Amino acid sequence: MPDLILHHYANSPFSEKLRLVFGFKGLDWVSVSVPSIMPKPDVLALTGGYRRTPFLQIGADVYCDTALAARVIDRLHPAPPLFPADQPLASLLAQWADSTLFWTMIPYAMQPAGAMAILGNPPPEVLKAFAADRAPFTAGMKRQTPADATVALASYLGRLEAQLGDERDFLFGAAPGIADFSVAHSLWFVRKAGPFAAILDRYPALARWLDRMLAFGHGRRTSLDSAAAIAVAAAADGHAAVLVEAGLGFAEGAEVTVSATDYGSDPVAGVLVGLTADEVVLRRTDERAGVVHVHFPRIGFQIKEQR
Ligand SMILES: N[C@@H](CCC(=O)N[C@@H](CS)C(=O)NCC(=O)O)C(=O)O
User: Fold this and answer.
1) Residue 85: inside a domain
2) Are residues 95 and 191 in the same domain?
3) How many angstroms separate the alpha carbon of residue 165 from the centre of ligand 1?
4) 199 and 256 belong to one structural domain
5) Residue nearest to atom 17 of ligand 1 (CA)
6) Total structural domains in the chain?
7) What's the pLDDT tens digit per position in 93-111?
8) Residues 94 and 204 both lie in one domain
């Protein structure tokens, strides 16, 4: 079984989503710590420009975005299932949680006292550097004010509380699925937000559900430094099988860029080697990492032909 290498940092909610998936499935994984702000030369050596956190590496295959990484982990380790067949709408709720809920939670939790608690009371220059890094990262987005976010978050938490009102253990019933993990990472972050964590006290069923989710833990990790992870890619023997399906708008071998459509949209350039309704894959060469296949979910990413 190929080694799962997660490039992440402790305070990252989307990383917590995948760490909990590792715990749920009882997996062994390799942990590479990445910086939380730019520059990230060792990240870019593997991804070709994608800077968001986390990403999953398996040999010389790099999987960007947790929507895709969660599916890859589930494909390689199907039991227990992350996408149970009786939860067909769970991935849509997950998409809502990873976008709307997350971008409601962030302006709520990152109010000054929350940000200080989450970031561990950093000196002002660290806070300033963090804010300066995130400004261009989210430049195209309209951020909610804390007042708007507080109202919206309370409304969303009330809905989630009601869903759990019949004493079910997880959002769609007795077994957790992808929606549970996508909601859990935002609420995990709220719990770290000092005075702002108290909002969860108003939703007791949801707070118990969050305890259940966090009890999955993180599986078993070993650590690797980023240079060694790049060496793993360089030494890898081939890549996961890929295919460019016909009729999806782009031809195999086309020189393209792929970029996220929401935020952190730095483009990754490469040769198109894989395209389905679910995934787009670029081949690129890095002087340290060698020939890397960089995979993205199709939804939420734009493909552009390079001229
Ligand atoms: N849709 C992406 C969102 C990833 C995301 O927004 N990650 C945040 C951290 S939790 C990030 O990249 N922050 C900036 C950074 O780490 O450089 C996913 O599911 O992976």
Assistant:
1) no
2) yes
3) 31
4) no
5) 52
6) 2
7) 999 999 999 999 999 999 9
8) yes
**HEC profile of 14-79:** HHHHHHHHHHHHCCEEEEEECCCCCCCHHHHHHHCCCCCCCEEEECCEEEECHHHHHHHHHHHCCC
CATH code: domain of residue 301: 3.40.30.110
- Per-residue confidence band for 307, with pLDDT thresholds at 50, 70 and 90: confident
- Residue 213's alpha-carbon distances to 16, 49, 108, 250, in angstroms, are 11, 33, 22, 40
Ligand 1 pocket mutation, candidates 7, 8, 12, criterion most atoms within 8 A of CB: 12
Residue 282 CA to ligand 1 centre (angstroms): 20
DSSP assignment letter at 170: B
Alpha helices in the chain (DSSP H): 13-25, 41-47, 66-76, 90-96, 102-109, 112-118, 124-137, 146-163, 178-191, 204-214, 226-235
Range(s) of the domain holding residue 272: 5-80+221-305
What atom in ligand 1 is closest to the CA of residue 9? 16
Whose alpha carbon is nearest atom 1 of ligand 1? 65
Residue 38 resides in a domain: yes
The CATH number that applies at residue 106 is 1.20.1050.10
Token representation of residue 21: 């998936």
pLDDT per position as a tens digit, 169-214:
999 999 999 999 999 999 999 999 999 999 999 999 999 999 999 9
Ligand 1 contacts (CB < 6 A) are: 12-14, 36, 51-53, 65-67, 98, 137, 264
Burial class (CB in 10 A: 0-12, 13-18, 19+), 6: buried
Q: Return the ligand 1 atom nearest residue 65 CA.
A: 20
CA of 167 to the centre of ligand 1 (A): 32
Q: Note the pTM of the prediction, 2 decimals.
A: 0.98
What spacing in Å lies between the alpha carbon of 52 and ligand 1's midpoint? Answer: 4
